[in-house]
Amino acid sequence: MASKLEQKETPQANGAVLPIVPGDCLPGPERGQRAEPADFLGAEGTGVEVVVLESRANAKGVREEDALLENGSQSNESDDTSTDRGPEPASPLKETSFSIGLQVLFPFLLAGFGTVAAGMVLDIVQHWDVFKYVTEVFILVPALLGLKGNLEMTLASRLSTAANIGQMDTPKELWKMITGNMALIQVQATVVGFLASIAAVVFGWIPDGHFSIDHAVLLCASSVATAFIASLVLGMIMIGVIIGSRKMGINPDNVATPIAASLGDLITLALLSGISWGLYKELESKAYVNPLVCAFFISLLPIWIVIAKRNSATREVLYSGWEPVIIAMAISSVGGLILDRTVSDPNFAGMAVFTPVINGVGGNLVAVQASRISTYLHMSGVPGDSPETAPRKCPSPCSTFFSSDVNSRSARVLFLLVVPGHLVFLYTISSMQGGHTTLTLIFIVFYMTAALLQVLILLYIADWMVHWMWGRDLDPDNFSIPYLTALGDLIGTGLLALSFHVLWLIGDRDSDVGD
């Protein structure tokens, strides 16, 4: 009977896999060495039956059976089988520009229509009493809408990476990731919502020098309640999207973050408007309601902290993941201050409907790119490694947008989606008679210029920031997207406000900017 050898696998630099024979199968000094083909021949040249054991050594490298396609070596490397160069990173994703665009297009449009709906809601509620008399609520809008970048998009990117590298393949691993991450985002949502209300009070007090304790408590209760409920709903949606994407053979990186934003803006803004309006109505007759609501949600914090702390998948983020979400909230609040100062002027009331759209589209596109680059790097190693694909210095715009690698290709695709996407969204707003602005040619030119410049800046910053964080042992899934979406809010709001001011100065009366 043929003897059986147990064989392990070892990855080589050129992608080949050669067997290693255990020590008890080879004599003396040859134990543990790589087996050659001749070692598997019997004494008389007969074949030896080999039992191959599955190895998980490359689990982080290529574990994308159905969601991703393996990308072979580039054409100039395919013939090079030399092993002198040492280990190479795992194969990147093989996706054409068409396949990237096809997967991104539907979620992008869905997310865009979500921001259009949010803009329509903001255009309506800006005339409510709570927005008229407690104008600091406007400062909360970008900060709380930015929670999708601080929390939901970060959650989507984190879970997408985990799914792509095989950390959610078993029910036990899946349940562990769900419970830990849901508890984590509830902790972050409550804390960020509370801090956002403080920032709104401070930013509202500095220009006017007026402070109202009742309005401060109203802002706190509205912000915390909105952040908690919105994060709970959107977190559950994100988990379902990522699990469904894996089962359908779609790359979660391409669809999870846009879908997180598609309902994120609308749900968050609707909750903020409804909760703040309801609490404002109770302010005079039942003043105790506002502090009670605020205290209730804050009292739940210890429960979520304990759950997240016990989960190894979220323990590190619980301790180290606060810097990006807090700084991002502060950046978004500055954008909120610009929005508050602008829409409070009757000449620029029409800006309200466009702000969630331009900010949402920019944030969605850069979040997709950051999530893709992060997954690409995770397939090469762990944070802190310096694979050949990670630049050691600030990349040039040419390498970001015009090189042949897959991330540059996706950047071009995402940038090309800006103009047709915004044209569709502007037409939708116009057909629904939203806003106070007529869509003239000069308005569309200024608006498109602001949108293109915003996305161009964001995609370039994403290329630099994700690689920079990776080289400093920071997981981009947890750190990059909050900064990028917050910068998107600030840049988008600033450029849009500048466009409205320029249009008003040059006297584009046909667009009714000041109506």
How would you sum up the global shape?
globular
Q: So how many helices?
A: 17
Percent strand: under 5%
Output the helix-strand order: EEEHHHHHHHHHHHHHHHHH
Rg, Cα atoms, Å: 26 Å
Which structural class should the secondary elements be placed in?
mainly alpha
State the share of residues found in helices, binned by percent.
55-70%
Distance between the termini: 92 Å
Mean pLDDT reading: 76
Number of strands: 3
Uncertain ranges? 1-32, 48-93
Please list the strands of the largest sheet in the order they lie side by side. 2-1-3
Main sheet, how many strands, which sense, barrel? 3 strands, mixed
How many structural domains can be distinguished in the coordinates?
Answer: 1
Subcellular location: Membrane
GO molecular function: inorganic cation transmembrane transporter activity; monoatomic cation transmembrane transporter activity
Family: Belongs to the SLC41A transporter family.
Main location: membrane
Helices and strands in order, then pairings?
Blueprint lengths: L3 E8 L5 E4 L28 E4 L44 H29 L3 H5 L3 H9 L1 H18 L6 H38 L4 H36 L3 H30 L7 H11 L1 H10 L1 H9 L1 H22 L7 H28 L18 H5 L4 H11 L1 H14 L9 H31 L4 H30 L10
Parallel strand pairs: 1-3
Antiparallel strand pairs: 1-2
Helix pairs in contact: 1-7, 1-12, 1-14, 1-15, 3-5, 3-7, 3-11, 4-5, 4-6, 4-7, 4-12, 4-17, 5-6, 5-9, 5-10, 5-11, 6-7, 6-8, 7-12, 9-10, 11-17, 12-14, 12-15, 12-16, 12-17, 16-17
Entry summary:
With 515 residues, the chain is mostly helical.
